[in-house]
């Protein structure tokens, strides 16, 4: 049983995320009015303002307060944006980002009709007295003839033209005859079914231009698809493009387009006529090239050839789909995770039985973690059961964690296949997720269990399978950052203890088998025990006085446990590495919680009140079970300061000095004797570095000290 949690982010983090994502839309000249609407707005640092343009030909330019209608040196300028419609916005927008709260003064520099002088002005964060918006508007009325930057090109913001592919099933680009300024970003949005954007020359339509751009094929069944391909217009020279889909001969059927085509001679119409007579369309073998492809916010740097495979994404099929060694992750997983498998695992000539069983256990646990993360990501995403509970930033983060878990699992599956060893069979996975809180608890428990096993495996394989140590140790930081994210989502501190807890592999397998899996097929992890220990159920928790610290926990004692252990029962509390405590269990099943423990700890029912962590396998009666004890005492500063950071790092520092060559041997297995003798160095360095990884999550999120603070007493 774990402490209750709230399905909300800490307020400071939630505000940071929500404020940073706010966007304002301002219309320019809508309904034939010489007006920005709204004329004024108040925006925070990080907010964005998007300007939409209407008839006839307007622009956004920045001035100073004292010189309205005149361009400010280094100020923003959208470029002029013609549009014949009074009520339908141009497909071209201009977006700026607010970098500080200094007032920003905006005007339309169109001189045909003296737009600025007639009141077409706008302000962001204008003061309420002194240099007010009304004062600026009054000064503009008597300003000299408007000017705009001499080159007429956009600067200081994003000028974006949106082009739809096959909108409504029509084989066309909308718009297809584009006149745009250099520096404009053209964003191609993909619609059903399977289309591409490829650059060609004018005389050879339907065939790729050497060193031209290509998106590759982007199949989708939904609209909007979330898939975009962006290019930047470099100059005023004509650009010709087409869809290379041969099913239905899209290019030959008119699915072509141009940017800045001449109005006579080599026009778009002439290009379309040439395309009708072109031979079968072709496309470069690799994509994307010459532009940026993104899918649901994830930048895709490479495809599997020239086709995006959406079925290789984050879905339950990823659990059973194990690629052969030497095969990289799909491009979607690679880009979502931030990378894939290493170039080389530095495999040795052989693998020990101990390493084989350890990798099989890690694959078993990774499959459970994948089932949990993919399920949570699906339910948190748009259209899911929990959509809207967390901001999109957090949902995307869960997607990244899922992809990273796939990359981590590849360490086990690639290595086992390389050595011709059996992979672990898949199971039916039951991850408690009746609500988002229950899912968070499940995900956190799986993560902490696997982190504990990774520390155990790194330590015991250092002397026999040295190549495996860096392969697994480099996963630990990412796994710990995952737990930090989940902790923050539960309104807990990211790192409540200075080290992670080591969990013996046998206990981890027992817990996972009892709680999350059934009907497993094929090879089972060989961990040295024949069956799982009984579950250890928490039936009551008592706090110390009026504090939130757990003082005692009551466990359900099955009828024969006390009878079969006349010498007594104890709870072994597995806490931050190097901390193992025993407390006696009373007849009612209650056991006191040692006062020096913080965060999540593992409770194991044992029949002996002393020993080391690995001794627990021989004396376990039931368990383990995860228990939340307490957060460290909050500090008095309102924000994280250097002293707080240093105090968090102090417990980590002793792990590193004076290890010398022995630490090197322990980590890389260059001396079996030294590695065996100094196994504690491996565990200490690994366990301590994970808390540093969690700290990095907090620092990167810019949260307040309610999330990070000093422990009240030294740890471990």
TrEMBL record:
Coiled-coil spans are none
Give the record's keywords alphabetically: Signal
- The superkingdom listed in its UniProt entry is Eukaryota
Residue span of the signal peptide, if any?
Answer: 1-20
Alphabetized PANTHER family for the sequence: EXTRACELLULAR SERINE-RICH PROTEIN, SERINE-RICH PROTEIN, PUTATIVE-RELATED-RELATED
Please identify the protein, giving its name as recorded: Cupredoxin
């Amino acid at each position: 049983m774990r402490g209750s949690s709230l399905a909300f982010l800490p307020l400071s983090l939630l505000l940071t995320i929500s404020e940073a994502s706010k966007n304002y839309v301002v219309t320019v000249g809508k309904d034939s009015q010489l007006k920005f609407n709204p004329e004024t707005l108040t925006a925070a640092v990080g907010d964005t303002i998007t300007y939409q343009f209407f008839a006839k030909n307007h622009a956004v330019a920045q001035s100073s307060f004292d010189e309205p209608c005149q361009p400010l040196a280094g100020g923003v300028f959208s470029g002029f944006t013609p549009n014949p419609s009074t009520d339908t916005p141009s497909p071209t927008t201009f977006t700026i980002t607010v970098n500080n709260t200094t007032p920003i003064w905006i005007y339309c520099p169109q001189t045909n009709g003296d737009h600025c002088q007639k009141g077409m002005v706008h302000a962001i964060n204008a003061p309420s007295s002194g240099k007010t918006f009304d004062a600026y508007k009054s000064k503009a009325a008597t300003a000299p003839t408007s000017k705009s930057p001499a080159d007429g090109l956009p600067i200081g913001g994003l000028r974006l033209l949106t082009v739809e592919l096959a909108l409504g099933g029509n084989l066309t680009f909308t718009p297809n005859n584009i006149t745009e300024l250099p520096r404009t970003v053209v964003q191609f949005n993909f619609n059903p079914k399977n289309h591409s954007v490829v650059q060609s020359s004018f005389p050879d339509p339907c065939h790729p231009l050497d060193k031209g751009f290509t998106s590759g094929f982007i199949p989708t069944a939904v609209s909007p698809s979330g898939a975009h391909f962006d290019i930047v217009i470099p100059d005023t020279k004509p650009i010709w493009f087409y869809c290379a889909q041969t099913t239905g001969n899209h290019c030959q059927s008119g699915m072509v387009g141009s940017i800045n085509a001449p109005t006579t001679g080599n026009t778009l119409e002439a290009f379309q006529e040439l395309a009708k007579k072109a031979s079968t369309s072709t496309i470069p073998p690799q994509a994307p090239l010459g532009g940026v492809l993104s899918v649901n916010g994830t930048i895709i740097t490479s495809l599997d050839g020239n086709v995006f495979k959406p079925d290789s994404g984050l879905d339950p099929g990823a659990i059973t789909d194990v690629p052969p060694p030497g095969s990289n992750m799909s491009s979607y997983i690679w880009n979502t995770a931030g990378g894939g498998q290493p170039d080389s695992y530095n495999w040795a000539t052989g693998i020990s039985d101990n390493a084989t069983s350890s990798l099989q256990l890690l694959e078993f646990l990774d499959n459970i973690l994948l089932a949990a993360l993919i399920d949570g990501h699906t339910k948190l995403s748009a259209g899911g059961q929990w959509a809207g509970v967390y901001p999109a930033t957090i949902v995307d983060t869960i997607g990244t964690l899922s992809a990273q878990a796939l990359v981590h699992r590849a360490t086990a599956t690639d290595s086992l296949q390389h050595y011709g060893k059996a992979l672990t069979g898949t199971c039916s996975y039951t991850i408690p997720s009746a609500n988002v809180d229950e899912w968070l608890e499940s995900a956190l428990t799986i993560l902490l269990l696997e982190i504990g096993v990774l520390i155990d495996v790194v330590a015991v394989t250092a002397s026999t399978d040295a190549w495996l140590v860096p392969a697994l140790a480099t996963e630990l930081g990412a796994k710990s950052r995952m737990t930090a994210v989940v902790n923050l989502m539960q309104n807990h501190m990211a790192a409540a203890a200075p080290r992670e807890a080591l969990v013996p592999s046998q206990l981890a397998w027992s817990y996972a088998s009892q709680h999350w899996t059934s009907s497993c097929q094929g090879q089972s992890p060989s961990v040295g025990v024949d069956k799982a220990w009984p579950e250890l159920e928490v039936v009551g928790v008592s706090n110390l006085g009026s504090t939130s610290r757990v003082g005692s926990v009551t466990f359900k004692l099955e009828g024969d446990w006390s009878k079969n252990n006349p010498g007594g029962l104890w709870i072994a509390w597995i806490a931050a590495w190097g901390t193992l405590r025993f407390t006696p269990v009373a007849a009612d099943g209650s056991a006191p919680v040692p006062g020096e423990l913080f965060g999540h700890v593992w409770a194991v029912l044992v029949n002996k009140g002393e020993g080391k962590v690995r001794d627990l396998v021989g004396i376990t009666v039931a368990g383990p079970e995860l228990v939340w004890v307490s957060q460290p005492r909050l500090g008095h500063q309102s924000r994280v300061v250097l002293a707080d950071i240093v105090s968090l790092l102090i417990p980590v520092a002793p792990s590193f000095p004076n290890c010398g060559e022995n630490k090197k041997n322990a980590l890389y297995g260059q001396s079996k004797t030294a590695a065996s003798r100094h196994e504690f160095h491996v565990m200490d360095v690994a366990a301590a570095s994970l808390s540093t990884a969690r700290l990095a999550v907090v620092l990167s999120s810019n949260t307040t000290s309610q999330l990070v603070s000093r422990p009240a007493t030294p740890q471990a």
